[in-house]
């Protein structure tokens, strides 16, 4: 069973949307997490990449799915050390294309396969790029409705942005959704250190972060101490050595505290769907923001018992599995098309 609490400006999702039944061949949080990352959509629309130069002389690589003038736009934000090539992002782009919507998949700085130009990169609390992308989309497609979805770290970025904006959020943004958000960044960072599978996930992320940082030392030799960097094995250690100081935080704890989206949930004033599994290996169920949802009429939550982290796979095998979370997000957006 799942949990639906709170509602936005229109009726909440139908009751059947509150339930998620894992595919019989994909039981348990880690199976859901791993298969969710591996199973690509069966078909994909044509995608074109554009490089958008940012006001600070850096750039964002954007993967787009075209649509007719006047169509809704779906903006997708990926997770930590992921990209627009992730299975979840591609699934959402396919869902947008199926509906005749425009798709905009944002690659955070350094995540498109090409190193960004500046010392700074991206992090869980960096919202200025999202704000700039939204304004850029509005200028390019004036009057077209915009919907945004964030995945994991991207969900934290998106919720923090929407909360920071409050009533000033551009009216073109009709609704947003966040899937598998790490609502407590400190807890999630240390959760990677507990259990065999979590440590496997962490090693993959830390290896990618270190490789990028080592490459960037060629341009910025004082970015981090190379010897200490080579010894890093945990995400919390990387945030302490690199993420925090590079982005102006005193230490990792200060970065986590300043960047988490949880304190901003009460300031959100646009219909927002939160989807998190209670068995997410990176966030204990007791930390799900049930009170925040109950106190803010703009928030709707789906907190099913199962689903893992960015998993939520249901349906039979060997048929194409159903990506339940993406399905719920798109249904939520369709409810808000007329607002």
How are the SSEs placed, and which strands pair?
Elements: E1 4-5, H1 29-38, E2 48-53, E3 59-65, E4 73-77, H2 87-98, E5 102-107, H3 128-140, E6 146-151, H4 153-165, E7 173-179, H5 185-191, H6 196-216, H7 226-231, H8 235-246, H9 252-259, E8 272-275, H10 290-295, E9 299-302, E10 313-314, E11 322-323, H11 324-335
Parallel strand pairs: 4-5, 4-6, 6-7, 7-8, 8-9
Antiparallel strand pairs: 1-9, 2-3, 3-5, 10-11
Helix pairs in contact: 8-9
In one word, what is the shape? globular
CATH class identity of the largest domain: Alpha Beta
Q: How large is the share of residues in beta strands?
A: 15-25%
CA distance, first residue to last residue: 30 Å
- Secondary-structure element string: EHEEEHEHEHEHHHHHEHEEEH
